[in-house]
Every structure is written in structure tokens, then in C-alpha cells.
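Q: What would this chain look like folded?
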Amino acid sequence: MKRVLAHCLLVGLLGCGSAPSPVPLDPQPTAAPPAIDVPVPLPSPWPRVLGRPGKLDAPFRQGLADWWDVRQDGHDYAWLYPGNWFVSPRGVSPADASSALASSSARAALIHDDIRRPPALSFRRYAGTAFGTPNGELPARYRVSMTVTPIDAHPQNYPPVGDLGVPIFYLDPIHYVEVVFKPQAAEIWACDGGLPEKWRGWHPLFQTELHTRAMQPRRLSAAVDSEAGTMTVSVDGLVLATVKHSLIQPYSHFFALRATGNKMGFSDLQIESY
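A: My prediction, written as C-alpha cells:
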């Protein structure tokens, strides 16, 4: 879905001098991008309601009540699908008794289990009241930490890990900044009006070699400062990069989880202001 020339990785990098050397992305396809490959702009004016100081801890124990399918926000793109999201009390999928998920936490885990051919995206965004708003808006500055465990993926979608992205800073299904795990890389992308399997609107901010296999938990942490426009990302306790992008602003923004026709689990989620 996000295939660009390797030299594009040099654009938009910030603070990555001490990080591991980037590895090449997939080669450019032989066919030229279609003429309709045009980014969709962010609706204007965008709301600027921000959450107040607070903390969200172990939210999956309450089930899916606070996790909205973003189609409930009025988005009806053909590639959006509901997915199969469910909460497993001890982090084990009934369809796949994952020792990795079970050992990562005794807390409940949110599982997605719906493998599809791309393009197919499903989002669940936090829409609860932990930060003093009725719709899940986050504060201007916040930290996210969670355990991400890939399980399986479609043969055309980076198996067995998939294109496993977590929209840390989310506005809508085509405007967000995410951390992505693939079998051989960890990446940070800005989707600024980009559409699945298109080119324009997708901005690679960082990539490093990181081998991840199915059933291998990764501890993901990210600190967002929307006033400075920055996000600092760590994986398994190692700081990967601080990136900056114009999309990260003190708009009304959210935290979301995303599936791309893959199977994975999320546990030990905490979000707190700082």
C-alpha cells in the first residue's frame, strides 16, 4: 500500500542521526500511478477541541463500547470494512491460542481476526471520556504505550506480520501519523490524504531494519507534542526517531487502531497526558 522510492526516505526525517541506517523500500512498479492518484485534503475548518489532562489505562476490560468503528463518524470509503474486532479477557484469541499474547499480559487484549486481500482497512478509534471530552479527543501532548502482537496476514500483504500500522495521531481514515511493523522493518508514516494502494499523500518519515515474526510481541511507545508537531517513537525500550510533520497540529485528534486485512492483538494499552 505504501510503496515509494528509497530516496524519498530522506525527506521529512528529523533527529534520526543516531538511529540505524534506513533500508530500501520496495522498488517502484513498472506502471505509472493513475491520474486519479490525488491526495484528499483535510476538511477545513477542522475542530480544535482538545482533551484535558488525564490517563487511560487497560481500556479493553470494558469491551468495545469506547472503540468506535470510524464508519460511525460518517466515512464510507469502499475500502473501509468493519473487521472482526473482539476482546479476549486474558489476551488469548479463541481462534488462535497464542502463547505470545497470553504471556504479554494478564489483562484483556483487543484482537482483530479478519484476513482479507488488500486494499481493505478497518479502524477502531478511542471515543471514551478519559480526557474530559465525550468523544475521545486527546490532549495537546500525550504518551501512548502498548504491546502489539502480529499473528497472521494475507499472502499479498507482507505475511506473516502484515502491514501492521498503529495510528498514534489520528484525524480521519485518510489523515493520520502511524507506526508500522512489517516482517523486516519498523516505519513511521504520515498519511496526509493518501488512499490505499495509491502514491500521493503518503509520506515516509522514518524506516529502520527490524525483523519481526508472527507471535512476537513488540512494546510500542510514542510521545506526541501536537503544538511542536513532533512524535518520538520507541520500540522495546529503544528510541527509534523523533519525526516532525505538518499534519501534527493541535487539531481535535484521537488515538486509533488499524487493520489491513491482517490478524493481530493489542494489550497493555496506556495513554496519558504530559
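The radius of gyration is 17 Å.
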